[in-house]
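Example 277.
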Amino acid sequence: MKQVRIAGKEWVPALGMGTWMIGENRSKRAEEIATLQRGIDLGMTLIDTAEMYGDGASERLIGEAIKGRREQVFLVSKFYPHNATARGVRVACEDSLRRLEVDCLDLYLLHWRGRVPLEETIAALEKLRAQGKIRHWGVSNLDTDDMRELRELPGGNAVAVNQVLYNLSRRGVEWDLLPWCEKHAVPVMAYSPIEQARLLRQPGLRALAARHGATPAQLALAWLLRREQLIVIPKASTRDHLEENVAALECPLDAETLAELDRLFPPPSRATPLEML
Ligand SMILES: NC(=O)c1ccc[n+]([C@@H]2O[C@H](COP(=O)([O-])OP(=O)(O)OC[C@H]3O[C@@H](n4cnc5c(N)ncnc54)[C@H](OP(=O)(O)O)[C@@H]3O)[C@@H](O)[C@H]2O)c1
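Predicted structure in complex with NAP:
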């Protein structure tokens, strides 16, 4: 498994597992658990969740899936901006730990920026770190100006990742956010890497994938995975989808294919505000 270094010292898999909208339907539960367990077996040991997902249902299902395998997994969860206060972060973290049935999160993210001053949130996260309840903290959906501001605050340079919307059809981050994160050694986690499956219907991508002997999902993921310092977290709720996605790691893209992808999905030609889903 290709690895990405976070916080200057720890290696995590470049391909992890998203879990938005899992754990919400009883009839799908067994396959969702089997999928997460298969993903761990295949080296996709980074699992991304949030207190928001299914109002805790995603965290509860992950807790069940990783029972007895906690040490193999790098667990990422997120808290709501309205829980970003000193007390709110502590309570939200304890709730997530209880639902996941673990003692510690590997990475804890502010889901998006709200009204609570970032200083207060950083101080609360550092306290959780000192107490051993989280190992690293980071942010999600923060644009370049927010990242600049965050890094300059006391303790702000401990930010371990920024999780943002990034895929072939959402390339705005290439203009300034990705270069900024690269310069400051803050790895980016690309969420919705296949645009919640909408990309897979794009005729140009389908045709190119067919010529390449790959599927559209594999091409879209391989395009992201070729970057250094980028963690990609597709969500799959079946083992068939998961196994198709993991094979994207074995899907090298030549210059001609990359040029064709640039033609189909042009890179940004100016700064645009960060998009989010
Ligand atoms: N920080 C944030 O604000 C934020 C926002 C959005 C997402 N996220 C995180 O990022 C993760 C991934 O993003 P996402 O779930 O929005 O979208 P995504 O990963 O781009 O797409 C997921 C969808 O694609 C389908 N799919 C996956 N692999 C497939 C394949 N090989 N062939 C056909 N369909 C396939 C899935 O279907 P099945 O479920 O049927 O397999 C699901 O419907 C989330 O789950 C979440 O953990 C974070």
